[in-house]
Amino acid sequence: METSKDLKDFLMTRRAKITPEQVGLPGGGRRRVTGLRREEVALLAGVSAEYYVQIERGNVAGVSDEVLHAVAGALRLNEIETGHLFDLARAATARRGRGPTRGRATGRPEVSPGLQAVLDALVGAPAVVQNAHLDLVGANDLGRALYSPVYDGTPAGRPNLARFVFLDDGARRTFPDWEGAADVVVALLQVEAARSPYSKAVTGLVGELATRSTEFRTRWAAHDVRAHRGGTKRFHHPLVGDLTLRFEALDVTSAAGLTLFAYTAEPSSPSADALRLLASWTAPQPSPTAAPANRTDATPPDRPTGGAGAPG
Fold first, then answer.
1. Cα-Cα-Cα-Cα dihedral sign, residues 155, 166, 148, 126
2. Rounded-to-integer distance, Cα 169 and Cα 232, Å
3. Distance separating alpha carbons of residues 264 and 284, to the nearest angstrom
């Protein structure tokens, strides 16, 4: 990733979203830029215009946390955007060989047997686990059924939600709010790209999507970031139709980079009925040849009626 350019583009796009009037500065007149000028951000942050220009260019070696917080306040960044700014600044500093990055643990975290047992214990609630670059790395039976279009679209290898959303024709059917789903995917990848700027998995995925999808490139250039911790999500399932489900996202503290998503439906809703129907189709069926566990009748098993062992 070009970390200095990413920092510059992020700050420029944030400046473009703030008008002078929103921050108590006089507007009007002829302005060559959308939003705030660099010198206006500098004024609000309490630094010189020259110093802010250097920050926006990615020259952040020696810039204190206090100054970065001041810039975040001037641009009215939220908590996620502020964290992203700090990640970009750390990455830009490290690229110049002057400091460490705050990245995730190396390697590819996997679903442990203990975590799989937790997933399987969530009876009636679809649950999936994804890693930081949006691979689906684990699921319970109902979670796999809910995301079956994603799994079916990846006959070999590990399903990836970003590839599915931007490269699979079935994504717009599976996610009725495709625009919102696409925005979330890109925002999450922006966060991870700044957090782990030298991850081959992330840079490879971003490069592939940018090459193959105009929709992805357009969103990536906007540099929007967000959290994805809870809310509602709409699905269209090929077997049970439309579902609107609540979800909660839980970080897996035993494996850095993994997040568990669990889904529930509003009680007595059409989505709850659809979820129960989906669960009934995914439940394991008893073997037709299995003997009953407890025989309650007194009728003995039928005797053979012929052959060498039968009485004459």
1. positive
2. 23
3. 21
The pLDDT value recorded for residue 101 is: 46
The C-alpha angle 182, 85, 221, rounded to 5 degrees, equals: 35
For helices 200-212 and 214-222, the axis angle rounded to 10 degrees is 120
Cα–Cα dist 16/117, whole Å: 48
Helix (H, G, I), strand (E, B) or coil at 231: strand
Mean pLDDT of 184-212: 95
Residues 275, 243: contact at Cβ < 8 Å?
yes
- The residue among 196, 12, 189, 16 whose CA lies nearest residue 88 is 196
The rounded percent of the chain whose pLDDT value lies above 90 is 71
Three-state SS string over 143-192 comes to HHHHCHHHHHCCCCCCCEHHHHHHHCCCHHHHCCCHHHHHHHHHHHHHHH
Higher-scoring residue by pLDDT: 297, 1: 1
Residue with tokens 């490069």, as numbered in its chain: 207
Query: What kind and span of H or E run contains 136?
Result: strand 136-139
Residue 158 has pLDDT above 80, yes or no: yes
- Picking from 280, 168, 184, 192, the residue whose alpha carbon sits closest to that of residue 233 is 184
- Give the angle subtended at the CA of 252 by the CAs of 249 and 254, to the nearest 5°: 175
Q: What is the pLDDT of residues 101-138, one digit of tens each?
A: 445 544 567 899 999 999 999 989 999 999 999 999 99
Predicted structure pTM score: 0.84
Give the helix/strand (H/E) hosting 277: helix 270-282
* Helices 3-16 and 38-45, packing angle to 10 deg: 90
pLDDT score at 36: 92
